[in-house]
Amino acid sequence: MLTAKDIMTKDPITVSPDAEITHAAKLLIEESVNGLPVVDREGKLVGIICQIDLIAQQKRLPIPSIFTLLDGFIPLSSTKHFEKAVQKISATTVADAMTSDPVAVTTDTGIDELAGLIVDKKFHTLPVVEAGNLVGVVGKEDILRTLVAEPE
User: Fold this and answer.
1) What's the gap between Cα 84 and its chain centre?
2) For residue 113, what is the domain's CATH number?
């Protein structure tokens, strides 16, 4: 059975948490990728930033519903969700917009599990790590290539 090591893109394009949002957007567009792993100075995976994270900046802010009772305000929805939305919409650095602690796979993760994560969880880019260090990424195209690959 094929594993992540067999199909992953080695030495993927990465971005640092302190990079500007515009830099990440340019990389996503220029390299025609959906997501970029975010790594610290030591090469440890700390997050992932995807096109959808940047598109979210163009969303309207979801104002939480509240009602008043005896001159007090009572929220009808989570203020935590509202605060997270504000952070994403107003992000200026990758750290502000990225998904922290992303789902990652190891080099020996089977193609069936990779396909399951991509389809069931709607992930587009899966970081591949060894001992916390990024060693590659698996995307939808990597799995598609296995369907048209010539047998060796």
Assistant:
1) 15
2) 3.10.580.10
